[in-house]
Write a structure and sequence with these properties.
single chain; 213 residues; alpha/beta; Rossmann fold; 4 helices; 26% helix; globular; binds NADP nicotinamide-adenine-dinucleotide phosphate
Length: 213
Amino acid sequence: MARIVVIGGTGYAGAHIVAEAAARGHDVVAVSRTAPQTPARDVSYVQGSVLDLDGLGDVFDDADAVVCALSPRGDMTDRVEEALQGVIARLAGTPSRLGVIGGAMGSLSAPGGPRLWDLGVPPEYAHEAKVGIDSLELLEASPAGLDWFFVHPPIVFGAWEPGERTGRYRTGGDVVVKAEDGSSYISGADFAIAVVDEIENPAHRRARFTVGY
Ligand SMILES: NC(=O)c1ccc[n+]([C@@H]2O[C@H](COP(=O)([O-])OP(=O)(O)OC[C@H]3O[C@@H](n4cnc5c(N)ncnc54)[C@H](OP(=O)(O)O)[C@@H]3O)[C@@H](O)[C@H]2O)c1
């Protein structure tokens, strides 16, 4: 059993990761500023801001893995990189692994590139895509002692299309995962399986990977 802390554990990606990890019997802590409307069973919920790490007390102590599932929206629009920098500094030199949930646009369209970002991003997604790309760069520049992984969801991923748990997923290195019909999608529950599998059996150390069907 691992102790897993999910920052943003009440959000779309975070809540699915929390539920999957708790269902597997891990010791799970979900951090967010507001309490969830429907708490999951066997999960500890901690209220506080990741922008105030001191205020979160000892929540990161003894964590086997910390997952950062923040999104650059609302009052966090321009503060996710700052939050991630704080978490990196807090975990560097500790045994805790850091996983970061990013976006599809930083993944490659084909082996060797270009990135989806380089092919053009609709303006409404550009900021969030850029924050995901910047977050990966922060991890790549982090102290060598920090064991991190970064996950690119597929192109279609989110609360508007949560889908169902099938138990299936594929990973694709740094290339976006697409099905044979060209679609690029995964349900929230199956995405969470990939993340918790990576925590249980690390396959991407200081590396990113893509997930989809
Ligand atoms: N296809 C794609 O590329 C795609 C699609 C969707 C999402 N994503 C990515 O997936 C990641 C997660 O997105 P999401 O949609 O799951 O996010 P979300 O639903 O907006 O959830 C964000 C979570 O972070 C928490 N949070 C926000 N500010 C916080 C703070 N200062 N301290 C502590 N907790 C805080 C929120 O709760 P409180 O507000 O209560 O604190 C919430 O639990 C992002 O990187 C996003 O870009 C990618």
